[in-house]
């Protein structure tokens, strides 16, 4: 019979799920031609002096030397590091705490879960504009508090170059924490109820159960959540444009905005390609360890 090896009675490995393999061909071609091809194209042209239009006029590492000598790029990398570290810490911490509270079978859980997840349904532009209004000192939080009698209260992070990145961070946490909470809640709901019963019988405090039993069992959820958060951190752009447009001055610049400005406004494709290649390297640094932990040596083989 077709699809079976002679004398074995077993289906040929290559002919298993043939329809599914044929259906996946367009997706594979798209990934190879568009994503992989576009990535290689970007990296190659990052070594050229392309301006308005791409051209194969190689200049070696000149674009990268200019990139790392540009104060604007250095500020954007510094902002991304600050934003990324605090975003990872607070997203995971707040999301897990909210999930743990939600896992106590509280009343109106569905309502609270919907409310917490609702900000994630908004676009980053809408979120940025909302928080730009809330953080405006003339009619936002500062104005409301001062109208209640605290005349000396000051809260205008978007207008202070030293702390503007934290104003963007507030908006990002408000939007993304609900998704982290749902991911963590799904992980908690996957924990066997017998584990909780055994911990209670042994007299183990709840916080110790979470730290030493539950969290290690949710390793996969944490790794996936970290990758999702980290990929969003690297490409942060919309929030910055909506809230500050990179200001005051260049105090809230981020790499994605640097790439966009150089490619479409300064008409310096070579510099934009070099910056986007550095972002690609950052993403690879995140994805490769995750792939290794999930599919490589980090997983025990049966």
- Morphology call: flat
Give unreliable regions as ranges: 1-5, 298-302
Rg over alpha carbons: 25 Å
Which fold name is given in CATH as the topology of the largest domain? MetI-like fold
The name of the CATH architecture of the largest domain is: Orthogonal Bundle
The largest pleated sheet is described as: none
Number of domains: 2
The multimeric state of the shown protein is single chain
Task: Name the structural class.
Answer: mainly alpha
Number of strands: 0
In sequence order, what are the helices and strands, one letter per element? HHHHHHHHHHHHHH
- How much is the average pLDDT? 87
Proportion of β residues? under 5%
CATH superfamily of the largest domain: MetI-like
Distance between the amino and carboxyl termini: 33 Å
Query: Which CATH C-level class of the largest domain is it?
Result: Mainly Alpha
DSSP helix fraction: 55-70%
């Amino acid at each position: 019979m077709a699809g079976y090896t002679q004398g074995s009675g077993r289906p040929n490995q290559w002919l298993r799920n043939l329809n599914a393999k044929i259906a996946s061909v367009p997706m594979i071609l798209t990934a190879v031609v568009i994503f992989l091809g576009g990535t290689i194209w970007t990296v190659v042209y990052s070594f050229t002096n392309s301006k308005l239009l791409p051209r194969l006029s190689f200049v070696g590492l000149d674009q990268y030397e200019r990139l790392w000598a540009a104060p604007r790029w250095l500020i954007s990398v510094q902002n991304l590091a600050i934003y990324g570290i605090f975003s990872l810490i607070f997203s995971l911490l707040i999301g897990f705490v909210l999930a743990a509270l939600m896992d106590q079978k509280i009343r109106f859980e569905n309502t609270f879960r919907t409310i917490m997840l609702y900000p994630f349904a908004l676009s980053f532009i809408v979120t940025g504009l909302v928080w730009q209004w809330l953080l405006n000192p003339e009619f936002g939080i500062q104005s409301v508090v001062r109208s209640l009698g605290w005349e000396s209260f000051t809260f205008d992070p978007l207008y202070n170059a030293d702390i503007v990145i934290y104003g963007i961070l507030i908006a990002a946490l408000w939007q993304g924490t609900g998704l982290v909470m749902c991911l963590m809640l799904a992980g908690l709901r996957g924990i066997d109820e017998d584990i909780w019963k055994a911990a209670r019988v042994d007299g183990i405090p709840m916080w110790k159960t979470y730290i030493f039993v539950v969290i290690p069992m949710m390793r996969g959820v944490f790794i996936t959540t970290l990758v999702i958060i980290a990929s969003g951190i690297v490409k942060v752009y919309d929030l910055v444009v909506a809230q500050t447009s990179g200001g005051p001055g260049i105090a809230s610049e981020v790499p994605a905005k640097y790439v966009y400005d150089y490619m479409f406004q300064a008409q310096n494709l070579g510099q934009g390609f070099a910056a986007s290649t550095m972002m690609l390297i950052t993403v690879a640094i995140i994805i490769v360890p995750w792939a290794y932990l999930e599919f490589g040596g980090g997983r025990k083989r049966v």
